[in-house]
Design brief:
- The complex is a heterodimer.
- By secondary structure, chain A is α/β, with parallel strands linked by helices.
- Chain A has two domains: about 170 residues, Rossmann fold, CATH 3.40.50; about 70 residues, no CATH class.
- In chain A, helix 3 crosses helix 4 and helix 3 runs parallel beside helix 5.
- The C terminus of chain A is likely disordered.
- Chain B is elongated and about 100 Å long.
- Chain B has two domains: about 190 residues, no CATH class; about 100 residues, Alpha-Beta Plaits (2-Layer Sandwich).
- The longest helix of chain B is centred in the middle third of the chain and has 39 residues.
- Chain B starts with about 25 loop residues before the first helix and ends with a helix.
- Chain B has a four-stranded antiparallel beta sheet with strand order 2-3-1-4.
- In chain B, helix 1 packs antiparallel against helix 6, helix 1 packs across helix 8 and helix 6 crosses helix 11.
- By secondary structure, chain B is of the alpha+beta class.
- The chains are: A alpha/beta, B alpha+beta.
- Chains A and B meet through helix 2 and helix 3 of A and helix 7 of B.
């Protein structure tokens, strides 16, 4: 199947199993469009994190086809993967901060990997830390930060490079409701600038905060598509299906 | 060039924590460099010693007049000196004075052997040819003396030292073997250290990978880290090695042996020894890079 013009990610009958075990993900097919906002929901163990791993190119599927930015990423050589990964911003559930680097250096890491000069990265990194409320903790090591602060550093690191697609795994799990809303507003702001956002969460209240979002629901490794927009996508991103109520569907 | 291309800054290169002199790696490299320095210096000194001895002996002949009767011995010796002095291709001829012979044999015979009073001692003639001694020239000298000095025995001086040269050559090969072995051991130590560092920094490496870091960038971080260790270790090791060489050199110089004095180190030798730590750094960095790249290829 060829990627439709303008799509950013296309999964076609993707399956994933670890080793010789049973399939964690089965028959996953969907298309993500640039500038759309997606929530990925599902019970614990439904396969959300595994699906995100496929999205942020940490794992290759056992079967099926994945196209990203118009390129088949399954057969892509290792040497070409970094260029694709630089177009992604990822917020990991366990933050994955480098423990012996300061908050500043953790946030600056994607820019340094991309070859941004030191003189050009100081201000954006400082601004980003300020924005997530950690301007005065830029020299702090992750071990000295609270869970919420570490999560904010992880989010700052994911968005600092203005990625084409932001993938976040439970990004508000360790922050207070006020900060959760603030972070969602950041994601929305990025989304308005054209970044495709995929947020995995089990917080149903969060879904209501972004009414324009589309929802993917995973159930035992299979993708439910309450909006119908994922399996049979229209040419343009759809707003959330009228009449679809979170309480009913989730 | 990807070998020197990193993440673009000093701070990002700190992704791998540096133990510096508190870690084992610089000390392992220091020991390796010190041993390599000593082995290399030994090999070079032996090469110089053999070279100097060969140069000195290459044109040397010894004529012995083995005649028990002193008058006949002296007559044949004088005649041989006269014939040799006028022969073409001969640079110098010197009859070794009796007093010198007495001194040479004194440790074995004491005063009793002086000037052949009780034990007949052959007359010795030291001959220096204008070029190296060949079989053809040796036969020519023998032919010249045959008949006129029938008691004359002619030998090339280098033939006496052939077993010594053979032993020196073996020692040189041994020194070269040691240098190669130590270089291989250093590379193996770096390989182990790199594998260990990769294991303990796996989480960081995965993060850098997922942020779009290339294998080359990650390998650079490790080779830079190992490179610093190798510079530190190499400097310390060279210091220890040089101290040992100077100490040994002083000990050998005190022997006062003419042969051993030919085993001193020249300017090029010292330059070669000074390059050992540099070679160590290059070996360490290349080994680290190859090790890390090979390990990274197994990751997505």
């Amino acid at each position: 199947m060829n990627a439709a013009e303008g799509d950013i990610v296309q999964f076609d009958n993707v399956g994933l199993r670890y080793g010789a075990g049973k399939e964690i993900l089965s028959d996953i097919s969907f298309t993500l469009y640039p500038g759309s906002f997606y929530f990925l929901t599902g019970a614990s163990g439904a396969g959300k994190t595994s699906l995100l791993k496929l999205l942020y190119l940490s794992q290759r599927p056992s079967r099926g086809a994945i196209r990203m930015f118009g390129t088949d990423v399954i057969t892509l050589s290792r040497a070409r993967l970094p260029a694709f990964r630089r177009r992604l911003g990822v917020v990991f559930q366990d933050f994955r901060l480098v423990q012996h680097l300061s908050a500043f250096d953790n946030v600056a890491l994607p820019l340094r990997v991309s070859g941004v000069k030191e003189s050009e990265l100081e201000k954006p990194v400082a601004d980003m830390l300020e924005w997530v409320g950690l301007g005065d903790r830029s020299d702090a090591r992750p071990a000295t930060l609270s869970g919420g602060e570490q999560q904010r550093v992880a989010i700052a690191r994911a968005v600092i490079g203005r990625p084409d697609m932001l993938i976040a795994d439970e990004p508000t799990g360790n922050v207070d409701p006020e900060m959760a809303v603030k972070l969602l507003r950041l994601f929305e702001a990025l989304n308005r600038l054209g970044t495709t956002v995929v947020v995995a969460t089990h917080d149903l209240h969060l879904l209501k905060k972004v009414p324009e979002s589309l929802i993917m629901r995973l159930d035992k490794g299979r993708l439910g598509d309450p909006t119908g927009a994922l399996r049979y996508p229209p040419k343009r991103p759809l707003p959330q299906t009228p009449g679809f109520e979170l309480e009913d569907g989730l | 060039m990807s070998l020197i291309k990193g993440l673009g800054s000093e701070r990002s290169a700190q992704l791998v924590p540096q133990a510096r002199l508190t870690g084992p790696m610089p000390w392992v490299i220091a020991i390796m460099v010190a041993l390599t320095t000593i082995a290399a210096a030994g090999g070079l000194a032996l090469a110089n010693l053999a070279g100097a001895a060969r140069a000195e002996l290459s044109g040397g002949l010894t004529v012995q007049i083995v005649e028990a009767e002193p008058t006949a011995r002296d007559r044949q010796a004088e005649l041989a000196v006269s014939l040799l002095a006028n022969a073409p291709g001969i640079e110098a001829v010197r009859r070794v004075p009796d007093s010198e012979l007495d001194t040479l044999i004194e440790p074995w015979l004491g005063d009793a052997g002086a000037a052949g009073d009780t034990v007949p001692v052959p007359a010795l003639i030291d001959v220096r040819l204008s070029g190296p001694v060949t079989d053809r020239r040796l036969q020519a000298v023998r032919g010249l003396l045959r008949g006129r000095a029938p008691a004359a025995q002619v030998d090339a001086q280098s033939s006496w030292l052939r077993p010594v040269f053979s032993a020196i050559s073996s020692l040189q090969w041994l020194a070269l073997g040691l240098v190669v072995l130590l270089a291989a051991t250093s590379a193996a130590a770096v390989w182990l250290a790199s594998r260990s560092a990769l294991g303990s920094n796996r989480g960081t490496i995965e993060i850098v990978h997922l942020l779009g870091g290339t294998d080359g960038q990650i390998a650079y971080i490790f080779q830079r880290s190992i490179g610093f260790d190798a510079v530190l270790g190499g400097t310390v090791g060279l210091g220890f090695g040089l101290a040992a060489i100077l100490l040994l050199g002083r000990q050998f110089a005190a022997l006062g042996s003419g042969m051993i004095s030919g085993g001193g180190l020249g300017l090029y030798d010292w330059a070669a020894i000074a390059l050992i730590p540099l070679a160590g750094v290059i070996i360490a960095m290349i080994t680290a890079r190859i090790t890390v790249l090979a390990a990274l290829r197994k990751m997505l």
